[in-house]
Amino acid sequence: MAMLVLDSQVEDRLREERERSGADRFDEVWDGVYVMSPLANNEHQGLASGISAVLQIVLNWGELGEVFAGVNVSDREDDWDHNYRCPDIAVYLKGTTSRDCGTHWLGGPDLAVEVASKGDRSREKLDFYARVSTRELLLVDRDPWGLELYRLADGVLKLVGTSRPGEGGPLRAESLPLDFGLVAGGPRPRVEVARRDGGESWRI
């Protein structure tokens, strides 16, 4: 259930408590509205950490680009904290047209990864990510399990493929020489990341 807080004192206290505890790490501001995201559970954090580690290896630990496990992405340089999103993972390749402003990135990543959690609004971020020219977005859904790959075309992030355990082929990224897929496993399906040159692959 969503909650709208109009009492400024309650709002200040909630934000201070979340900042003090570190629970605000992935909080966002959507056009001036402060959005408190649910704290990621262990599975969510494990997926994000694992995928991030693989991407670091693929990009040779910064030589080909930068990988961020949580970063502020905005559509403005000044007053950026009035409108920003925090993808679970963001990849900015060398030569990106987006700009590192220190506190945040002005412009979208080459690849964003969102791990969906119950009650979050991952899919509602797609329009924003498109506006800031995010090239591709991989969404990891866990209820039911599935991968969705979106690609920027004509100013819109369009769904170009899905993967479910035992259904569909690998999802071929354009921003990186990688294929993503879901393979059956226990106690949950595994996210498979494979180099397209036939080299290494990882299951997370």
Automatic annotation (TrEMBL):
Native source species: Tautonia plasticadhaerens
Residues spanning the membrane: none
Domain of life: Bacteria
Stretches assigned to the Putative restriction endonuclease domain: 30-167
Gene3D superfamilies per the UniProt record, alphabetical: tt1808, chain A
InterPro entries documented for this protein: Nuclease_put_TT1808 (IPR012296), Restrct_endonuc-II-like (IPR011335), Uma2 (IPR008538)
Organism phylogeny: Bacteria, Pseudomonadati, Planctomycetota, Planctomycetia, Isosphaerales
Protein name: Putative restriction endonuclease domain-containing protein
